[in-house]
Structures are given as C-alpha cells and as structure tokens.
Fold these 4 entries.
Entry 1:
Amino acid sequence: MAAPKPRIQIGEKFTRWTVIEDRTPPGERRRYLCRCECGTEKIVDGPSLRIGASRSCGCLQVELVAVRRTRHGDTSRDDGKKPVPEYVAWTSMKNRCTNPKCQRYEIYGGRGIKVCDRWTASYEAFLADVGRRPGPEYSLDRYPDRDGDYQPGNVRWATRSEQMLNRRPFKRKANRAA
C-alpha cells in the first residue's frame, strides 16, 4: 500500500497559487483557500494543486492566449482598437497577391506579382526588412521594379507623389463608336 502524500502546507506555492488556509470540510477531499499572484482568492482542491491542474485563478491562461495570438504586439494599438499601419500594409500586400477574392487581386496576384516567402511567413521579417512607416503620408510601393515582386530591395515607403511617378502606363480602352 502506498504511503499517504504529505499534506499541503500553508504558504506553499503552486505555480501562481499560494496556500493561505486549509478549508477541508470533515470527511471530504482536501481543499485550500489560495491567493493567486494577481490577488484573487479562491478555494482549490488539493489534488488539483498537486498535479498542476489548477495553476492560477485564470489570469495565467489569459496571458498565455494573448502571447500566442500576438507575438509582435502590432496587431493592435495601445488603445486596443486598430492594428498599426505597418501590420495593415503587410496583410493588405499578402491579400492582394494571394487572394483571388480580393478586389485588387487582378492587378497584383493575377498579374503574377508575389510576396517573397520570408515575408509571407513572418510579419517580423517584413518589418525588419522594410522598417516602420516614416509618417502617415507614406504607403508601400514596389520600387525600383514596379512590375517586380514584393521582396527585399524592391519595396519602399513612398509618398503619393513618389508612387505616381512609379506607376504603370494607363491603357485606355478603345472607344467603340458605331
């Protein structure tokens, strides 16, 4: 027969829980009043503490999910409302080159313009290569090869006037007069 496990001690720490008081009702499974690092207090079963099934009041899970969803912190601003402009430019660039349902796909991905694999796979790589947008009047531009792919050495932040100098010649449709 296995020896009984030693009782959990007051002050003992389990991940973010610290045991404050034994609250075991007579004849029942061990329960303890615990305080989470965030300050929340809750009664937790002893076995849940021992095996790590309860590691916090829930605050740890919230933090872990946030870390998994946002590695770089640019998907939303400090106010939590809008992504940063560089992230918007990155997602828009990928969308217009890869998504046939995108309104501008025909003049990008439909013409064979691609995004390099490094940037497709990683926003961080895109940001490291292109840098932050210098100001609100700038947007992403393929330069010097306006017909080239989105890749290091062929992308810059440009003003509207710089982009106008870099655009493809406009072809008018022939007027079909009868």
Entry 2:
Amino acid sequence: MSAPWIAALPMYDFPALADAHERLWSALKRQLERAGLADVPAGLTRDRNPEELWSDPRLLLGQGCEYPLAKLFGERIRLVATPRYTVPGCHGATYRSAVLVRKTDPAKTLADLRGRRCVINERYSNSGMNLLRASIAPVAGGPRFFESVEVSGSHRQSVQSVAAGEAEVCAVDCVTKVHLERLYPAGGIGALRVLHWTAATPSLPMIASAAASVETIAGIRAALKGLMLDPALGATRARLYLEGFDLAPRGAFSEVLHLEREASRLGYPELI
C-alpha cells in the first residue's frame, strides 16, 4: 500500500457505543499485527461519511449496507464476513426491518398506510428503503402508494420524525431498533410500535477495499474468528449484540437485488 490502511465501523457506531467499537478494533488490531500485517490503523476513522469510506482503496475493514454496495460500490470492495446478531428479527447472519408507526396509529396492515407520509434514512438504504419497498409492493397496486417520502439522514432521525408526527411510518433494521430502545429510550422509539416485519436479507457486511490481497482478507477473517473466542471481549460482544460472523459470505448481493426486481415487477419500482 502507498498509504496506511484505514478502518471504520460506521453502521451502528452510536456515540454511546464508540468505546465498545474501539475495544473491538483494538483487539482486532493486535491480532492483525501478530499475524504480520503492516500499517494497521491505531483507531477507527469517524470523520468521513460511509460512501467515502466504501470507495477508499485504503479501507482495511469497514461495515456497509448491502443495497448501496450492490448498486454503487460492488467493484470497489471485497466481502469479508457477515455478522450474526442476537436481537429479535435476526436469524443466523440475516436481519429484518421493523415497519414502525406510532402506538396510537389505527393502522392494522400495510395496506392501511396508503396515502400516509413516509420517512426513510437514505435513498439507497436496504433496511430503510429497499426492504420497505419490497413489503409495500404487493399491496401498492401501482407506482404510487405514499403521499410523500422524505429523507431524514439516519434511522434515529426517522424514528424521531414519526414520533413527533412529522411523518407516519418508517422502517428501521432490527439491530438499530434494539440499540435505540436501550441507549435512547426517550428519543421517540418508545412512542412507536411494529406494524410489520420485512423480508430477511444478509446482515450489514464487513468489507475491505478491492485492493486488499487474498492473504490480507484471510488474515482479517482469522482475526474476526479470534474476536469471538476471546473471553475478555464477552461484555463488549454482548453490548453490541454480536454473536459471531459468517466467514464465507455470498458475494453477489442477490437477495437485495431480487427484492428490487420483484418490486419493479409488481409495478412499484420507486418508494412513493
């Protein structure tokens, strides 16, 4: 490499979990250095947006969202592993999103959301947009379902928007949902309820730059396996709801792209 590697775990890196992610990275760093990898970053990069990180050829290890990776970044990254989380909505190395409405909302089914105001975290989010679109497509009956769709910038902001009545529905992945309930119970999540669970897709993958060698990827996978065997990290793993990794992830993003194609086939190619 012409410059040192960087590492980032931005997808669930809430301020209240920053220390847990740093402990996780410190343990990984020690294992990678013992395996002979040079220029392992001392800490996690937190001053860049995920899209910048995913396209950086110096990315040694990061975490990404499958849908934007599939649509925009596929040739620039290598899949390293898929995490397994211990929260409702996860099964093995997959996760679902919860479609959330206010507890006082009379909606009983997805069809009852027709003409409502929706908010998503990002336009290319799998959990906030793609999984929601796939759930709505069978009941949409055409290209328009919601009155409006706004972009909030984060799942946490989407939850706050629905709780405040600025929007009426959002979709939040199950891992984020549990973190919000535990870390920020006064942040609006307590005012919401689950109307529907979406289809499952692989959890947010651990990735590296396409510039990383086969040997480097093998070393990272060995280090991730070591994380799960380290008794000193038990409390950190529990705090992150992390129970392991699938170290042989499928590489074609087939599930998320299938959901996109199916929504289009049903006449609902855009979330609106």
Entry 3:
Amino acid sequence: MSDNIKPIVVKIGGSTLGHADTSFQDLVSLQEQGRIPVVVHGGGPTVTDWMQRQGLVPSFIRGLRVTDGSGLEVVVAVLAGLVNKQLVAAIHALGGRAVGLSGVDGGVLQAAVADPELGYVGEIVSVDTDAVTALLAAGYIPVLAPVAANVAYDGADSSAMLNVNGDTAAGHLALALQAERLVFLTDVEGVLDSSGRLIARLTIREAGGLIASGTAAGGMIPKLEACITALERVSVARIVDGRAPGALLNALGDNGTGTWLAAQVMGTV
C-alpha cells in the first residue's frame, strides 16, 4: 500500500445484500485502478432470518438488536461466517482479491458493553488497524464483519465477543485509517428532510441537527453519527443508494446522487 494513497472505507448495508447492483464489480474496478477499498458489511436481515430458524425472537431497542448469549452465537456465525464469506467469494468471482475477517481478528475492533439492557452489544472504544493495513499492503481488499473483542472479558460471566453496529464500525475504522472517503451503500436515496426530500449536502453541524430534531430516524441515525465521527479526519462522507448501477464509483466523484457530508460548508474543506 502506497503511503500516498489513502483507503476508501465502504459500508455495505445488509438491506442491499443480494440485490442485483454493481457494488462488487465497483470494488474490483477500484482495486484494478490501484485504489484501496476497505469493506465493512452488515447483514441484519440475514441474522434475523437465522435467529427465527433457531426459534429465537428478534428484539430491538432504539434500533439496536438485543443480543443475549444465544443471539450472539447466531450473530457471529452469520456475520463473520456466512455473510462475510459470501461477500469475499463474490469479489473473487469477479476477479478481485479479498480476505474476510471480523473485528475480533487482530483486535481490529475493541468494545465495551454499551447498555446492559441490550445484552452483548458493544460500544467501540479503540481500533487497531494493523491487520487491515497488512492486508492492504499485500494487495487484498479487507472485508470486515462488525463483531468486536470485549475489552472487559474476564472469562466468567462476560462474553469474549460483542455485536457492534456496522455503521458505527465503519465510521470508527475510517477515522482510524484517516481514509480518503467514507461511503455508505444503503437502500434509500440518501438523507431526507422532514418532507421526504433528498438533502444533497450536509455539514457536521447540520447532520447533528437532523438527529436532535428527530428528522433522522431509524437506521439513518447511526449512519449520520458514523459520518460525524469519521469527519474528524476524513474529508468527505457519502450516503448513497447502493442499488443503483455504479453507485460506489459515482460516490467517489464530485457529483453523483445521494447525500454528501463534509466537516465544513462545501468549498472550504
């Protein structure tokens, strides 16, 4: 990995997995161009499906999955196993080079229990990028599942692993890597105002205002919060409809659809 080229952190939402989009081909194209993408993926719908197969009832509080011991086993198996390997296989099938890992591997993501009411759900407290940068240096696209090591693990009543929000993981990883750009590929056209109209550009302050006012709701909240986190060291973040052809490549240009977020008013970044 060249010291002069910064990574591009791409969050692929679980809601877009399986759609006939061009995300994987876009990733391979970036790799062929000498760019260095890093993927963080979700997989919530698949986790829910497998929980139900096991007779478990999914439950959410403030948009976060309540994760007990049995639920955590499903989360880890599905995200770090099935979904992660599906993504890696798809990239290889298109001629790319990728390696799948979770936030536990190499201690990339380290977290602490965020709220006992949520169970084994973590809040990220530190990021170690060594494993990710080693893969980039070797010419691979790292594909990261959002499972973290528990910093408070004591071998007794706590779990060694925690479920973490994929959007949050992407924001923290982009910050730690000082990425060139953070891109969220989701299943909506971008950030919407109170009238349901697309907001093309936002600053950190404006994004925070949307959260505080309740205009941003559900899964858009962690995406905006992740952008706010990353923009401390990342110049631009994009939230775009990943189902559109060429969505990722378009998000790396100066135009494209979706919502463009920057630390300051555009033109002064």
Entry 4:
Amino acid sequence: MKRVFAMLLLLLPLHFAAAGTACEPKNNDATTFVKSMQLAEKVRKALDDSGAQVALIARVGQDLSKYNLRYSHMAFVWRDHPKGRWLVVHELNQCGTAQSSLFDQGLGNFFMDDLFAYESSIMIPGAASQKRIAAVLMSTTPGRLHGARYNMLSYAFSTTYQNSNQWVLETYAAAMSELPIDDRSKAQSWLRLAGYKPIAVHVSTAARLGGRMFKANIAFDDHPFDRRMAGQIDTVTVESVMRFVKERDPEAREITVR
C-alpha cells in the first residue's frame, strides 16, 4: 500500500500536454505505467541523495539518434516547490497546436509522456547557482520569459518562437546574469555574450517542407536564410544546454538514471 501511495504522489499535480515527443495518441498499459513510476522513484531518490535544491532534468521522449542526440526535453526540478516536493517546472506544447504553456508536474507524470527510453539525465548546478535558479523560479521572471508560440525547432537567437529547452535555457540565463533580465531579447543577448552555442541539427529540404506543411508545431522561418537553405538548424537542444551549464559552472555534475 505504501508503494502505491508513493507512486500516486509522484503523479501530482497532473496535466495533459507533451514536449519532446511525437505528440501522437497512445494507450499506456500497466507495464508502461510501472516502468515510468520506477524511473520516477529512482530519479527522486537520486535527487534526495544529491542534497540539491534545484536541478535540470531531461528525458528521452523520442529517438533522436539520427541527429546524434539522446535527450529530447528538459525541465527544472525544484525540491521546495510551493505546491510540493520535487516538482517539475517546464514548458509544454499543447498537442496538435503551435501553442505552449508553463506547467508544474509531479515526477511520475513527467516520465509518463510516451518515453522512447526509460532514462533520465540530471544536471545539478553548484550550490550558488542553485540558489539563484530557485530565486528566479519563485519570481515572475519565468512567466515573462515564456513565448507561447511554440516551435519544436525554433532558432536559438530569435524570439519569434520558443521550444521547451529554450525556455529552460533563457530562464537559466536570467538566474546567472548579474543584470536584471526581464525579457527574452535580454536573455538571448546574455547567452551570446556568455558563449552559448546551439548544436546544429541537419534537416533535409524534404523534411523541412514536410514538417512545415504537416506539423503545426514545426517552423523554419525564424532561422537565418543561408543556414536554413543549407539544412543547418541551430536550435536549443538538451545536450547544448548541459554543455553550456558545465562550461560555466565548474561545480555542476551530471547523473544518469536508468
């Protein structure tokens, strides 16, 4: 009974949206539920054992191996969230639309999103960085840095659209900057000066045309024309955020949970 109760706690609060997945209907069976809850429990234990106050967490929502990427979606996970312990804070795309919202979720629900692999990467910043991130999460800044026009492959240095990993990165920028950051343009300017570099994803012409025509949450018109025509899409990926955090914060450490 205690184990079942713990699993239910990991699911709360519950919202229905998706990011980093194909956003297609799928019936989750009992095996999927158990695997998701087991991963959530392991991640929660790893977070507790780490002594962290806040961390960045990633999941494998789809197979991105053809782009040499492993993780599809990133979020903040906050130990002392006002709504409960170790809640996930992230941007999610409303399925089938070009819109997104910010959500607070339990760890269980975070890993119920039709995973390709039951694996998570946890990036734990240094103590000073954690304190700054927690302060920003408690403020109104995350909402001001949210761009509701969602694009899975949004350009890293444009405010036309935003993907879920981009919101995490820009919120991280607001936390790390010595000067106040209250809009996305300022966050992106800071990121350029701080040396953030997106990972270029190659997307063929056929794939670009197909994605733009048939997917509401994919667009390419915000990317520089020459890069776009060469199939080089400079978007914010989980791996690029992790690399940037490690480069800036020598105390940051990464934990992989399977």
